[in-house]
Amino acid sequence: MGHEVFVYWPNILGYIRLVLIFTAWNAFNNPAVFFTSYSISVILDGLDGWTARRFSQTSRFGAWLDVVVDNLGRSMVWGQLYEWGWLVSSVEWCVFVCNHNAHGAQWTNSFTNSPQWVKTIMAKSG
């Protein structure tokens, strides 16, 4: 993996999503800014994978960045909405770290020996 991977289009979308997540986090008490920032981040989340495949710019770094930004966004929402949101977020981060380190970019396919409900959830990439 060369340094050019850091400027792949899908990764640039990931960096933009990261800025939008932190903007939403800081503007949680301003519903218009929060909703707009978070919604654009969600839309870009759908576009980054498509962009990666369309321009043949898939990478391990991109797969990692996508999941990290997804987790940060959900952690922010859990933490802002519920006092115990840190617990849900912590479990999600543990699952990511354990599975991503063991299986790399294909970590969402690593649940073949899991209970059916876990397979059902992970069939749609979480």
- Regions with pLDDT < 50 over 5+ consecutive residues? none
Tell me, what's the shape? globular
Helical stretch tally: 5
Number of strands: 0
β-strand percent reads: under 5%
Element-level helix/strand string: HHHHH
The portion of residues assigned to helices is: over 70%
Distance between the termini: 27 Å
Q: Calculate the mean pLDDT score and round it.
A: 86
By helix and strand content, what is the structural category? mainly alpha
Oligomeric state as shown = single chain
Biggest sheet layout: none
Describe this structure as you would to a colleague.
The chain has 126 residues and is mainly α. The protein is 71% helix and 0% strand. It is globular and about 40 Å long. Keywords: Lipid biosynthesis, Lipid metabolism, Membrane, Phospholipid biosynthesis, Phospholipid metabolism, Transferase, Transmembrane, Transmembrane helix.
Summarize the structure.
It is found in: Membrane. This protein is mainly α and 126 residues long.
What's the layout of helices and strands?
Elements (H helix, E strand, L loop, with lengths): L8 H18 L4 H24 L5 H22 L3 H19 L12 H7 L4
Could you list some keywords that capture this structure?
mainly alpha; 5 helices
